[in-house]
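Ticket #4471: structure export looks truncated?
Reporter: QA, pipeline team
Priority: medium

Steps to reproduce: submit the single chain below to the structure queue and open the exported record.
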Amino acid sequence: MGRWPLVGRDPYLQAFRQALMADQHCRGWMICGPAGVGKSRLAEECLDWAAREGHRTLRAMASTAAATVPLGAVAHILPPGMDLSNPVAGFDAVAREMASPGRGPVVILIDDLHLLDHTSATLLGQLVDAGLIFLIGTVRSQEAAGEVVAALLYRGDSITRVDLAGLEQPQVELLLHGVLGGPVGQRTLRRLFTTSRGNVLYLRELVIGAVQQGCLAHDGEAWQIEADRPAVTNRLRELINSRLTSVARGADVVLETLALCGTLSLCDAEAVAPAPSTLADIERAGLIRIYTESRRTFVTLAHPLYGEIVRSTLSTLRRQQLLLRQAARVDAYGGRRCDDALRTTAWRLAATGTADAHMLLHAAALAMHSGDDKQAVALLEALEPEHHTSQSLLMLGKALMRLGEYEKADEVLTEADEQAVGEREKVAAVTARGLNLYWMGVRTEVIREVNSAARTAVKSRAGREQLFLNEACLLVTSGRPAESLRLLASLADNPDGEENLDRWLLGANAKATGLAFTGRTEEAVTLARNAYAAHLEFGGNTLLSHSSAQLVPLLLAHTENGEFGECRRVGEHAVGELDSAEAPTAYLWLTFYLGRLEWFAGRPATARRWYAEAATLARKHRHLRFMRLYLSGWAASASVLKDVATAEGLLAELEAYPDSGYLDGEDRLGEAWLHVARGQLTRAREVLEAAADQARLSGSVVSEVCLLTDLARLGAPQAVRGRLDELASVCDGAFTTVRASLAAALADGAPEPLMAAATALEAVGAHMLAAEAASTAAVAWRRLQQPRRAASATAAAAALATACENASTPILATIDDGIAPLTGREWEIALMAGTGAGSRAIAEQLGVSVRTVDNHLHRIYTKLGITTRSELGRALRQLP
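Actual output as written to the record:
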């Protein structure tokens, strides 16, 4: 992939330019950091810039081999015939060679400067002191250097030390966007960042390997990795192997045990190490990390790729020996830690393919409690058939369902139902199977029949309540939230302990969703937060895939409550929580609701990426029940960005999927906005009107408000203002209120209410709607022949539109029409006046009269919609 861009290192490059051009005291840069963070890349960029500025440049590479010969690393940059036997004469010869009158010092790059020989370091130090060279050196952290070389590295104020660390995630995203030529999916970004830890060299090799092996590909919207982990190239394997094999003998057994077992206690690591100094040597080499947690000290590999490389070198017999030894070592302590049973059972299973049935069940329960469904499936599938019970099959079915393996889960849960002993086990199996059928995309009527059949056979009150709860959960996500809330009316706001936790968590999630759908956002926020806290407190062996699943209705409620910033914070936190978890259902819903948030925020490019990620994940896991929603949001975003071809393709795909009833009517947003992009506003309004009627019939208040607002924006505010006022009176969400105010202001056409709506929408974070309100107000002011107010509203609309990612709507298109451009002379005067210059000073500088300046300022104020000089600076900053 050639030479990667220098993303994330621009501030360093700017500092280097300043040091070379302006700082007479600085005569060198030492760029320090661990391997792979881009030291050489930054040094080369600095050298190239110096060359472009007219400096003479030289470069050399220090190495262990070159260090065996005096001046071996720098011999090629010295004058021919230099007399090494006479240091004084030799230095004079080099000084004459390096002197560049009028061109500044010679800039010399020495890569791996810590490997220089004594003589080379002495010579370079003298040249630095004489001001003849500007030295750029790269130094690998934690590498030992000779005394003279160390003196060169730390030469007081004349040498600036620059410590480079790995890139942060936003920098990695920018880098990958530049290298791949397009955006990267958020899940892919986090996997690459987590695996590389921001190490540029490792990142580069991971991307190259993933592209070569076809697991990193463009899905039409963004680059996505299909595999669980990025591929490792041979070069990356060799680079890491060279680090792993550079430490003292005996370290391999510690590294191998850590690679297989993950984290070890310090006591265990010391027991594995062949010598007392081994761990210190490995830590000094940067291969392990030792940390303390809850008064216990642990050891782990310093980088996730180290474990992958080490494991790939181990034979089956070696793996077995190491795993069984560590299991025996932990057993000897008596299994004091709560997860010891899980760890030792998993190690024995990996070593021998089998383990004690009781321990397998115990370990599987622990794995599910900690949210590791993959581990739970591996443990439960290792059980012999005769050891399976309805309860073990229920655990296995839950884990498979949470991993998105719905068909396999249905087989297991059907068997769990058949083996059930007593009503309690039967109700649990039917509950899990019904939820799994739902995710499989089975028709609601079929699932209700399964649930009803079970209800006729169940006599206990608790069992029947659970089956009624199942039906309520099904109703809320099938377009009947009001009916669902009636069934869930008695559900408490908090669980009454662990006994019925699974049932309560499922009901709380459904009830919070129903409350948000029907406009009761404050209640929804409270219940969703309680459910999330309870899920975190009591653990993961629940029907819902992850504690973050409880945050899905919270995102919906925060959006409708006008708390866009909080919604974004919670959503991105939840997505981050799922980085290391296999919970596709929860991740999919979070990405969808983040896309929906950004759509309302007026950021269609960002919304498009989230919607696309949801659709891609849904295809991968065959989670197709709500594909119409994902594709509709994606198509709407593409349409607003004038990408009609993409929107058409997405809507053609959308037709293959059935209507789910969830957020009823919103699955037609893409169709409506595609008509808008084609200029067919009448057809768009017809689609939105039909969709709003559909939402009204289903009781999805939030969807109806969304669709009616778009009708108002597209020319029918009078038709919807009454209904929006009704909905605002029954909804406690601030976003509904401000949208109703917008529709009323659009219907009346008065500029003051429109500007008030713009201010309220901006406060919420709905920048596109705010920009449209301000632009409409500007039109109204112009119609009333108040150009200054019109210009002020136009400037506000233009400023708001800058946050809308190049969106295009019929109202946004009027902003440019309302902007009266400043002439060249007006710009000149405005900029000077904006910095505080008076009319007389401006007149003297331009050679014109004060009156001429004042006349220009009057026209500038009129065009910008301002009245005083103090407003000028802010107005100029707001101009697009």
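Status: closed, not a bug. The export was complete when the record was re-opened. Leaving a note from the reviewer for reference: The two ends are 36 Å apart (CA to CA).
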